[in-house]
Amino acid sequence: MSTVLMGSADVDPHAEHGYLCCPDCGLLQKLPRTGIRGLNTYCGRCGATLERTRGRSINAALAMCLSALFLLLPMNLLPFLTVDIFGVHHTSIVYSGIAGIAAQGWPVVAVILALELIILPFFRFGFLATVLLGIYHDYHHPHLGKLFRWSERLDQWAMPDVFLIGCVIGYGRVAPFLPISIGIGGYCVLAVSFLTLLTRASLDRREIWRRIGPCCQHLEEGVEYVGCPFCGLPHPKAEAEGQPCRRCGERVWRYRPDTGIRVLALTLAGFFCYPFAYLYPMESNYQLGSLQGYTIMTGVHKLIQANFYVFAAIIFLASVLTPFLKLFGLSWFLISIHGHSQRWLRGKTMLFRVIRQIGRWSHIDVFTVAVFLPLMHLSGLLAVYVGKALPFFLAVVVITMFATEIFDPRLLWQKVDEQQEQDESVFVNTASAES
């Protein structure tokens, strides 16, 4: 095994090394000693971040999480935007836009948005706060690992930070034409969004997993190990495959079964919905007896005409390029796995991490419609209607997010693993570290 240079990082001489299977490529690796601050550790094969301690603090994450959980209630109940149209007063709260979408005949879309904006953020921060409080008080409960796993999964689906961008764009589209003001709920949306980002940035996830336990400090000779696809804890393959992880409860597989066929079905469904999302109007505006539809590209063009170049770029990247990149990437992965390709494996794994992180931001256009739908309403004179493209577009976004969650990137490295297993019985690398 190679020696890792720690630079100027602070090292606890009594701390122990640990072993971890990279969740992205499955490589069994020896991590640097625990208790090191200011150190980032990366997978020696695919470059995935295995541990990041620089700027991380469990106590800070707990404070941010509790603050966000406290502000979720006023964020959902208080008006965040207010408009006066010819003396008629309209306010927009989170629920009003969702209710308006349901009232126009799209209940499934409304349910999805209600989950992402109202319900799941409470579960996300509630589970995370429970875990961090348990760690803070050194309380060991067998379900802490499962709660932390669910809080991390829900992080992709709880979207106050994405909703903030939708609010900003909605405000920018209405402000030049109508008197609009920001309410207390708007400042709560801003606060919760930043607290969401700060909580995510301050979480020392590997340290949390170590505190929850158990950890793998030693390997038995002649035993083949398989890693948990979520937390990376190594397990003896003969005993653990198909069984729940001892730490987080996720099913342990060398390669997740039936991943290819399920991801293929979801990808094909995404390709089916994709053209309808751009051919049909995303919304229709009724003004003084005239009904005009706006597709996603029309909306981008209107923003450019209004000199909102930044908003136009955000919508184009989030609503046009990102869904295409996700569908293209998933298709490339499936073709590579089917053809046992060993080319650009590191690049493919990096692309998978990118589409896993950016996929949720495609909700911006949907949230923008939900924001100003309650504001733009004056009986017989002004109204906004949900277009046929919105459910198709939301379907593309949600389907590709599910496909990314289901996909097992370790399948990309299967052929390499098989060749290495033929060459040596035990393959353990030392993870690379930067201080």
TrEMBL record:
Domain of life where this protein originates: Bacteria
Database matches in Pfam families: PqiA
Keywords, comma-separated and alphabetical: Cell inner membrane, Cell membrane, Membrane, Transmembrane, Transmembrane helix
Keyword Cell inner membrane listed: yes
Compartment annotation: Cell inner membrane
Name of the protein this chain belongs to: Paraquat-inducible protein A
Matching InterPro entries: PqiA-like (IPR007498), PqiA-PqiB_transport (IPR051800)
Transmembrane segments: 60-81, 93-112, 118-136, 180-201, 261-280, 308-337, 382-403
Record bears the keyword ATP-binding: no
Cellular-component GO terms for this entry: plasma membrane
PANTHER family in the cross-refs: INTERMEMBRANE TRANSPORT PROTEIN PQIA, INTERMEMBRANE TRANSPORT PROTEIN PQIB-RELATED
Recorded coiled-coil stretches: none
